[in-house]
Amino acid sequence: MVWYFLRQFLLAGIASICFGTLRSTPWSAAIPIALIGGIDWIFYVVIYYKLHLGLAMCNLLAALGISVASFYAARHYRLPMIVFNVPALAALVPGGQAYKAVRYFVMGNYDLTLLYLYQVVVICGAITIGYGLGDVVNRILFYRHRKFRQNR
Amino acid sequence: MIDNERLVLALNCSLLAGKLLIENGSNMERVNDTMYRIAQNAGLHYFQAFTTVTGIVVSAERLPNAEATDIRSRADNLAKVVAVNELSREFATGKLSLDDLYDKLQDVDHSKMQLSLFSQCMAAAVLSLTLMIVFTNDVKDSWAGFIVGGVSYWFYLWLLKKFRVKYMGEFVSSLLIALMSVASYRLGWTQNVNAIIIGAVMPLVPGVALTNAARDLVSGHLISGPARALEAVITSIAIGCAIVIVLRYF
């Protein structure tokens, strides 16, 4: 079990780094990207395959996690947030489902087309809402932090 | 009092920064934010920007004409986004004058800022291998995913450089992916064609574009969101059709 999670963590982390490399993110951001991508994928695997929270909720929570983590990474490394939250999505993004939807559509298998199309829409929407909520959470955390400083 | 020439230069700076950000896949909210910030720091009053994925129009007070630019190519080069962000921040703190900002933005625009062909292909190959194992748990055939992903991405980059038509490049390199996977299956080297194909198309599929489109749509950019979504849909149609053409006949 531990071995399985370790493998998933390593693979998702490496995938995130490679995804970032294809979009030429700076090398100084490679390790945080791998950590965010790997840990978030483990989180997703646990809540989706073990706790069965459903497709939409799992993607939403995973995207929320990415958003919060990449906000802090962005502030710490002084880089724009897009450097962290795009590569970290590598394993979550519905590219495979989009491809499968088109493939089954062209092959004439409309049931599976609809299934995958539905998955694409749900995952996209969930990730979007997760990022939106992440912005809100970031703002709350950030302002509370500032208030503490002012009070001190 | 700022003279007119400086106003035009400030407008151009903001325009160029916006163009660079949109070209390299930033989301619209971020683009507008950076453009307005540069304009504000340069001392433009009543700055207005109309941003779409294919072009920008900006105007400011006391200038008779609006400035426009069109955006033809879109690539996801985040190094340029980082550079523009850094320049904008330096300009805001006053480390950089307006002329320097414009020169440096042009440098960023002209520079390539990309890794070598080989390392990009290696990254694509490793991405195919890792995502193939993550999604399908198929370790035995992953070497085929590695090779097919790397070679097809190299072919894609070559086509892109040669013909400059993105959809054609995706279509033809997906044909190559399907042909190579089917060939390896027919030769008896691999067992699972589907897993190899899913792994190998991963560097090409527009997952992030779809997500960006949804984010633009939700944040109220009703022109950019559907435009980006359409681009993503065309890309996935190109990839899917190419794979199906091969799988249909073999």
Automatic annotation (TrEMBL), chain A:
Keywords: Cell inner membrane, Cell membrane, Membrane, Transmembrane, Transmembrane helix. Its main location: membrane. The keyword Zinc does not apply. GO terms for cellular component: plasma membrane. It is a multi-pass membrane protein. Belongs to the ThrE exporter (TC 2.A.79) family. This is Threonine/Serine exporter ThrE domain-containing protein. It comes from Limosilactobacillus secaliphilus.
